[in-house]
């Protein structure tokens, strides 16, 4: 995770900051010294806690919304909690087993995995989820079929390894029936499975006229898929945060605006680095002004050098970072495993 600036807090200040973050995340109400002494075994007086809270406020880790009220964490306070006090959160083994079992019940199709991942991630993290359909750097052939429409006209159905589908009408160089097209497709699928357009193109020489023509159409179709630039995203769980006090009134519309048209991904993508770790952007740490009221937890998934997608959650800065980070981390691992299964099949 991206690291904050080095700050030295005493053990007592760290303990108090951690309790305030946890209490405020759970209740949404400012936290006073009396709350801490009554609910937690802090081992010091309310006066001592008030002094420590004042020091934490002066250092920029807490703020006091009302003069006579308790304190709430600042963006800096949340960051210190995430990077120094929370540890390395992982979903419980029970949650992991349940989620993996749920995925095994879903049909072996990438689109369904992405839709389901968005739903499960939103439910597990308790925030809005965002999952992009993974994109390959180079489209690779998985399967194709030829369906005869007329003696010299056929439908080519091309399926890539990430299950993208392209259908093309092809005009054949000679009269051909369905039986011959099926035999040709069976033979060429075996020879071309897993290959890119450039690799298939090198197999054209030495083929029969009909086979050469079909291979040329396949390379054309694969290159067309390579040229598609739009990133498709799925999101779920908008109801999880619209009930939060931070998103009352006009703030709710700001969440919907971020999810529409790819505004969230456009803002976050340039900041993401590929890898196995989760990246967290809190409040003013977010790259875009529109995101500075939010906490964003993101990770990449896929196969290094082959295919990459992103997934994550969006919520108030007062989110449960432990739950969000552990959910995103596990889901990224699981989706990467599923990609490996898909590409090796």
Report on the architecture of this protein.
The chain is of the alpha+beta class. 46% of the residues lie in helices and 19% in strands. The protein has helices at 11-27, 33-39, 46-58, 75-85, 93-104, 110-125, 178-192, 197-201, 209-226, 238-242, 250-259, 263-268, 321-344; strands at residues 62-63, 72-73, 128-132, 135-136, 141-150, 153-160, 165-171, 233-236, 279-282, 294-303, 307-316. The chain has three domains: 11-85, Orthogonal Bundle (Arc Repressor Mutant, subunit A); 93-133 and 231-344, GAF domain (Beta-Lactamase), CATH 3.30.450; 141-226, Enolase-like, domain 1 (2-Layer Sandwich), CATH 3.30.390. The protein has 13 helices and eleven strands. Strand 1 and strand 2 (72-73) form a beta hairpin.
The CATH architecture name of the largest domain reads 2-Layer Sandwich
- Helical proportion, percent range: 40-55%
Oligomer: single chain
Backbone CA Rg: 26 Å
CA distance, first residue to last residue: 33 Å
In sequence order, what are the helices and strands, one letter per element?
HHHEEHHHEEEEEHHHEHHHEEEH
Mean pLDDT: 86
Give the C-level CATH assignment of the largest domain: Alpha Beta
The count of domains is 3
Mass-distribution shape:
elongated
Number of strands: 11
Low-pLDDT stretches:
none
Question: Largest sheet at a glance?
Answer: 6 strands, antiparallel
The number of helical segments is 13
């Amino acid at each position: 995770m991206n690291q904050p600036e080095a700050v030295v807090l005493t053990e007592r200040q760290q303990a108090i900051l951690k309790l305030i973050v946890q209490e405020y995340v759970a209740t949404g109400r400012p936290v006073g010294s009396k709350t801490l002494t009554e609910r937690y075994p802090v081992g010091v007086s309310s006066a001592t806690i008030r002094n420590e809270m004042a020091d934490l406020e002066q250092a920029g880790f807490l703020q006091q919304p009302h003069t006579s009220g308790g304190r709430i964490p600042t963006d800096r306070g949340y960051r210190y909690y995430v990077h120094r006090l929370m540890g390395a959160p992982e979903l419980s083994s029970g949650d992991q087993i349940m989620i993996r079992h749920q995925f095994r019940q879903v049909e072996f199709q990438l689109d369904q995995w992405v839709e389901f991942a968005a739903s499960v991630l939103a439910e597990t993290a308790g925030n809005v989820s965002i999952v992009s359909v993974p994109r390959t750097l180079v489209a690779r052939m998985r399967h194709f079929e030829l369906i005869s429409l007329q003696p010299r006209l056929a439908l080519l159905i091309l399926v890539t390894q990430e299950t993208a589908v392209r259908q093309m009408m092809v005009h054949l160089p000679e009269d051909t029936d369905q039986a011959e097209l099926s035999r040709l497709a069976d033979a060429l699928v075996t020879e071309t499975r897993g290959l890119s357009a450039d690799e298939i193109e090198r197999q054209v020489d030495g083929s029969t006229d009909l086979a050469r023509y079909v291979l040329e159409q396949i390379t054309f179709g694969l290159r067309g898929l390579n040229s598609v630039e739009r990133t498709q995203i799925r999101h779920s769980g908008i109801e999880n945060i619209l009930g939060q006090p931070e998103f009352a009134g006009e703030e709710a519309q700001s969440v919907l605006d971020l999810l529409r048209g790819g505004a969230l991904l456009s803002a976050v993508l340039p900041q993401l680095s590929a890898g196995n770790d989760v990246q967290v952007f809190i409040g003013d740490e977010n790259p875009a002004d529109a995101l500075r009221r939010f906490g964003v937890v993101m990770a990449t998934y896929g196969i290094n050098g082959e295919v990459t997608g992103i997934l994550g959650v969006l919520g108030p800065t007062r989110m449960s970072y432990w739950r969000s980070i552990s959910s995103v981390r596990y889901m990224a691992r699981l989706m990467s495993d599923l990609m490996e299964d898909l590409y090796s099949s």
